[in-house]
């Protein structure tokens, strides 16, 4: 599978070739071409591992570092969807980037990040994964700061620093893994670490590192800041694919602990479930309060990542829970599709109106019919309407949540209840997004040349078609993609998955009831102005982050004062001592009497005198040692 | 391979220095040729010695003077230091020619520049403590004229500070050597010291150990002995780059590595029970260095504090007394030198081209000097310890070493220090590229490409070593093998 390396190298080469094109259109077409090649390569990857075998290749290397690539169902699937979304954003960029400033810089980093993301999904051990993970963080940082205004710089710093912290966590985790006697290979379950405590810490650091990238509460703070400020293709990819790199890492970590079997880290499952539920609730709660379309979508990314984390958590609690793992994988893909479609749609509206505030938009469906339909499909997808893709993955996750709730453990029971509550919130906020944007009265004037160009719309249509196919043919997709990926993720018993039927009347009714409650809740919220509620500042974690920085600065100031005052005292004392020595020296030189008359110190300066003093003291000490014989 | 290569390597640079001193002030072309030529010759000779590592046969020569003897010997640890110094000296001499173009004290500068190269190599290949001490003291005196090069009041003050710190430190070493010689009956050879020391009372050994630590700690800039290093940043940039990121500070670190492994031996240090204290000092230096660097506005001072923090990483690896940690220390010695020198080189180019010395003034400089600031940004990622830069691998081995020896708090120290590095390095690059400025490139009176070329080559080397860290493995493996039975 050495040719898989080209999947990583071609985007890098493309990025290097981009500046050779003087013409912007030429650059953007090259960008599309690379996206297309990447998709082709990913398809070949998928076909290569079709038979279910795992392909591994080691690239040269040495005793310190042997880069390893690994291709199995899971990595092929994630790589395939990454390439698809990249191609779509590439097509979209053809129109979008002609109206954005500094298109070349964005396009270069678009391609570099593609190579890095493919590298993350193809990595065969944690070190190789970390290599591409760091490149991905740095390259996508330039998306976030693309606008160069104050807000985006702030978001960019948060993104980069948290990304670097994630990388450091992973580095620490790798060291811990090696020391606890486990190999750093990906895709296998760790067999009996020699030191269980260190192994536990390694797993925590892995979850923390990948969790930062995945937008897990409480380290999600970068996400709602960074996603809205990037140019639209960047937002779509950040929300669509890059946070899935975190989810991918979490799934691989789950596989490392054999999904909770063997009892190496018995507390892990419950912890992850709690984190997942917290992520879901916080994301959806804050999303409801957003007026800015992109921020609303960003908070929904947090919330939907919560579903994925919950899936991983329930699988850990159950011990190789097939529903949880497959649900997490499936939901990652679905979220990649609908969230990037939604961001692209919002971007089209933004190009035409220059407005992201939902309360100032309205009645745009006449001007943007294709966008309206595609966004509606995507919104149905994300809310889990039967017939669309989100319903399928949410059903899997719900099965898993129900399974753990059977144990009667209150945490698990409540997590199942919250699961439904989050569904209600999701529906309400998407009714709000679509309703305020496309229906009602038009409030904003359109710019000249506003509308859906063929390039803008075709990408979205492509995504909508894929969503519809998944939604109507779930069994096919499940057998073709998700079950092999679940097997590759280390779940051996998939008998539940092979004869699951999604369109049972109870499940469909449950979902429909959720939708209805959500819509009612939206109407209620609009009437009572609930959505304009501003939570107190201390609740917001961004503010908390800044408070932390402020607190640190205060502590640092205090600490440095505390250090400096004694340090100054010591310095002053030393200086006084030194001056006295100089006086003594001068006396010896010029005013000495008695024995000192015979000694001539005039050619020794004070520094050498200092040295002699030290030596004399040491000699004295040594003599005492010699005499007393200690 | 014979010892003649070692002597030739030392002499090539020392004689080069003599030639520069004898040449007339006006013969610039010839002088530049001699500088680069002799540095290059020195490098080639040391590399020739380096390629003999797999054979495992190391030559030595000793010349007895009264009861003491001057001894030159090759061993993997010395070779590591020699290879780093001689290689980077070539880059720095090319950079210096570009940097000092038009300076009227070039002759003085290059004379001492080459002399310090010879002394550094002598230090690297010293075979006993006496020779080591001799070259260590000589290094202080040979580098003093370089520090005070500009002749301003600040520079002279900094020079005096440097001399005071170094000489007082060296006097502690001398005291240690005297005590040691009394105890062992005159044995000062690195090869036979650890066994000779084994019988001495532990209390006395601890005293000797701390004398050495204090002495070498000055040049290794362990807190609180670091004061001279930020002050010495008034020196010309190539001096700061080579001496205060590579040769002089590494001489201190090298001295401590020698003390721990060649003089006392890992077992003896372990039995002295001083390890927790040493690790604590290193951790404090690592964290405090980074925290102070955060508040520095002058770019070179910020780099100096970063150096203080990073040198403590090497010492940390040395004091952990474990093969993995020692490998980390050696790797960090190699990688930190090659990375930090790029940062200094870039800072020098920025200062020369724009006249800006402060971080707060750098906004928008990246547009004018994209390659310079680009390499700065890339390499600063390596200082944080991010792949694909080489800095990751040394941290990785240090992390493993500290975990294997059960010192898990060091994991926290290393990770926190990594993020602190990010805090003070990243904003420099980001503001350089994103900030607004109406800066125009200054008229290029200097040979910029002579400064830029070494910077870029070393920046690429940082990535190459990051992707193929195994290139350094023969050396590192030999050093670890020298002191631990694997």
Question: Explain this structure to me?
Answer:
The complex is a heterodimer of chains A (630) and B (486). Residues 593-604 of chain A have low confidence and may be disordered. Chain A folds into 2 domains: 4-192 and 206-535, no CATH class; 566-628. In chain A, helix 1 (4-17) runs antiparallel to helix 2. By secondary structure, chain A is mostly helical. Chain A has helices at 4-17, 24-48, 73-96, 103-122, 126-144, 150-179, 196-214, 222-229, 232-256, 268-288, 293-318, 322-353, 369-383, 389-405, 410-438, 454-472, 474-488, 495-498, 505-528, 541-591, 606-628, and strands at 55-58, 68-71. In chain A, 73% of the residues lie in helices and 1% in strands. Chain A starts with a helix and ends with a helix. Chain B has 20 helices and 2 strands. The relative contact order of chain B is 0.10. Chain B has a two-stranded antiparallel ribbon with strand order 1-2. With 486 residues, chain B is mainly α. The longest helix of chain B has 32 residues, at 153-184. Chains A and B meet through helix 5, helix 6, helix 20 and helix 21 of A and helix 6, helix 8, helix 17 and helix 18 of B.
Taken as a percent bin, the fraction of beta residues of chain B is: under 5%
Topology as H/E string of chain B? HHEEHHHHHHHHHHHHHHHHHH
Question: Share of helix among residues of chain A?
Answer: over 70%
Order of neighbouring strands in the sheet with most strands of chain B: 1-2
Overall 3D form of chain B: globular
Average pLDDT rating of chain A: 84
């Amino acid at each position: 599978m050495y040719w898989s390396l080209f999947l990583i190298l071609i985007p890098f080469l493309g990025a290097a070739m981009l500046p050779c094109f003087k013409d912007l259109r030429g650059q953007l077409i090259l960008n599309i071409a690379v996206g297309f090649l990447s998709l082709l390569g990913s398809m070949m990857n998928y076909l290569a591992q079709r038979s279910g075998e795992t392909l591994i290749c080691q690239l040269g290397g040495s005793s310190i570092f042997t880069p390893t690539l690994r291709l199995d169902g899971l990595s092929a699937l994630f790589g395939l969807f990454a390439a698809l979304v990249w191609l779509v954003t590439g097509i979209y960029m053809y129109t979008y980037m002609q109206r954005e400033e500094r298109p070349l810089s964005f396009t270069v980093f678009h391609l570099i990040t593609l190579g890095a993301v493919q590298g993350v999904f193809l990595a065969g051990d944690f070190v190789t994964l970390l290599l591409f993970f760091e490149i991905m963080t740095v390259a996508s940082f330039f998306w976030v700061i693309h606008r160069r205004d104050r807000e985006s710089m702030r978001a960019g710093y948060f993104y980069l620093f948290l990304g670097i912290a994630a990388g450091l966590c992973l580095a620490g985790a790798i060291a811990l893994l090696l020391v606890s006697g486990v190999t750093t290979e990906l895709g296998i379950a760790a067999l009996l670490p020699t030191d269980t405590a260190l192994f536990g810490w390694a797993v925590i650091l892995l979850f923390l590192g990948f969790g930062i990238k995945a937008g897990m509460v409480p380290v999600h703070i970068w996400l709602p800041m960074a996603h809205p400020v990037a140019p639209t293709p960047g937002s779509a990819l950040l929300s669509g694919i890059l946070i899935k790199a975190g989810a991918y890492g979490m799934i691989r970590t789950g596989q490392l602990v054999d999904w909770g079997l063997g009892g190496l880290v018995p507390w892990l499952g419950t912890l992850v479930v709690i984190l997942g539920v917290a992520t879901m609730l916080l994301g959806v709660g804050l999303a409801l309060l957003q007026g800015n379309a992109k921020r609303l979508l960003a908070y929904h990314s947090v919330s939907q990542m919560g579903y994925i984390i919950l899936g991983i958590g329930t699988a850990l609690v159950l011990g190789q829970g097939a529903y949880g793992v497959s649900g997490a994988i499936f939901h990652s893909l679905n979220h990649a599709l609908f969230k990037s479609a939604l961001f692209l749609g919002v971007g089209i509206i933004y190009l035409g109106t220059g407005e992201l505030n939902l309360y100032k938009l309205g009645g745009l469906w006449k001007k943007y019919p294709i966008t309206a339909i595609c966004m509606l499909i995507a919104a149905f997808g994300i809310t889990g309407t039967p017939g669309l893709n989100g319903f399928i993955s949410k059903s899997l996750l719900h099965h898993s949540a129900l399974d753990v709730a059977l144990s009667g453990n209150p945490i698990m029971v409540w997590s199942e209840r919250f699961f439904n509550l989050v569904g209600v919130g999701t529906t309400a906020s998407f009714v709000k997004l679509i309703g305020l944007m496309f229906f009602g009265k038009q409030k904003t004037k359109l710019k000249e040349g506003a509308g859906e160009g063929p390039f803008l719309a075709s990408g979205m249509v492509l995504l909508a078609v894929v969503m519809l196919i998944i939604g109507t043919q779930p069994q096919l997709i499940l057998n073709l993609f998700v079950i092999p990926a679940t097997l590759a993720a280390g779940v051996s018993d998939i008998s539940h998955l092979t004869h699951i039927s999604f369109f049972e009347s109870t499940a469909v009714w449950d979902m429909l009831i959720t939708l209805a409650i959500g819509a009612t809740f939206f109407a209620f919220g609009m009437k009572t102005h609930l959505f304009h509620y501003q939570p107190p500042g201390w609740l917001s974690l961004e503010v908390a982050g800044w408070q932390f920085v402020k607190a640190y600065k205060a502590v640092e100031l205090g600490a440095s004062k505390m250090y400096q005052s004694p340090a100054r005292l010591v310095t002053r004392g030393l200086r006084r001592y030194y001056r006295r020595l100089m006086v003594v020296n001068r006396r010896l030189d010029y005013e000495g009497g008695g024995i000192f008359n015979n000694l001539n110190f005039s050619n020794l300066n004070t520094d050498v005198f200092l040295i002699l003093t030290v030596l004399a003291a040491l000699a004295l000490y040594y003599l005492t040692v010699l005499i007393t014989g200690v | 391979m014979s010892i003649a290569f070692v002597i030739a390597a030392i002499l090539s640079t020392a004689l080069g220095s003599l030639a520069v001193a004898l040449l007339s002030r006006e013969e610039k072309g010839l002088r530049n040729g001699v500088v680069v030529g002799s540095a290059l010759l020195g490098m080639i000779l040391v590399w020739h010695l380096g390629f003999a590592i797999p054979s495992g046969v190391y030559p030595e020569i000793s010349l007895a003077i009264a009861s003491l003897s001057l001894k030159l010997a090759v061993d993997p640890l010395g070779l590591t230091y020699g290879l780093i110094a001689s290689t980077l000296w070539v880059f720095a001499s090319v950079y210096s020619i570009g940097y000092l173009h038009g300076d009227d004290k070039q002759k003085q500068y290059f004379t001492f520049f080459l002399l310090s190269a010879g002394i550094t190599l002598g230090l690297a290949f010293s075979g006993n403590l006496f020779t080591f001490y001799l070259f260590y003291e000589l290094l202080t005196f040979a580098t003093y004229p370089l520090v005070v090069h500009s002749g301003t009041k600040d520079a002279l003050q900094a020079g005096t500070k440097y001399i005071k710190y170094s000489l007082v430190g060296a006097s502690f070493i001398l005291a240690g050597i005297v005590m040691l010689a009394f105890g062992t009956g005159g044995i000062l050879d690195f090869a036979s010291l650890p066994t000779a020391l084994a019988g001495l009372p532990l209390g006395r050994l601890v005293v000797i150990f701390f004398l050495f630590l204090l002495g070498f700690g000055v040049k290794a800039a362990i807190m609180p002995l670091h004061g001279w290093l930020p002050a010495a940043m008034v020196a010309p940039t190539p001096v700061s780059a080579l001496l205060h990121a590579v040769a002089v500070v590494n001489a201190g670190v090298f001295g401590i590595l020698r003390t721990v492994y060649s003089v006392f031996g890992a077992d003896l240090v372990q039995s002295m029970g001083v390890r927790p204290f040493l690790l604590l000092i290193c951790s404090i230096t690592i964290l405090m260095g980074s925290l102070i660097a955060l508040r520095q506005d002058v770019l070179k001072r910020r780099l100096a504090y970063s150096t203080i923090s990073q040198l403590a990483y090497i010492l940390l690896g040395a004091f952990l007394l474990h093969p993995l940690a020692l490998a980390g220390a050696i790797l960090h010695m190699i990688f930190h030198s090659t990375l930090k020198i790029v940062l200094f080189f870039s800072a020098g180019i920025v200062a020369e081209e724009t006249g800006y010395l402060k971080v707060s003034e750098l906004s928008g400089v990246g547009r004018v000097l994209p390659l310079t600031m680009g390499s700065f940004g890339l390499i600063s990622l390596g200082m944080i310890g991010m792949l694909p830069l080489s800095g990751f691998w040394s941290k990785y081995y240090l992390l493993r070493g500290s975990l294997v020896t059960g010192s898990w708090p060091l994991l926290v120290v290393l990770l926190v220090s990594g993020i602190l590095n990010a805090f003070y390095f990243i904003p420099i690059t980001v503001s350089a590229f994103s900030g607004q400025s109406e800066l125009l490139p200054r008229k290029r009176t200097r040979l910029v490409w002579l400064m830029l070329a070494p910077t870029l080559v070393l920046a690429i080397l940082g990535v190459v070593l990051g992707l193929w860290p195994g290139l350094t493995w023969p050396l590192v493996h030999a050093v670890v093998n020298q002191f631990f039975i694997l």
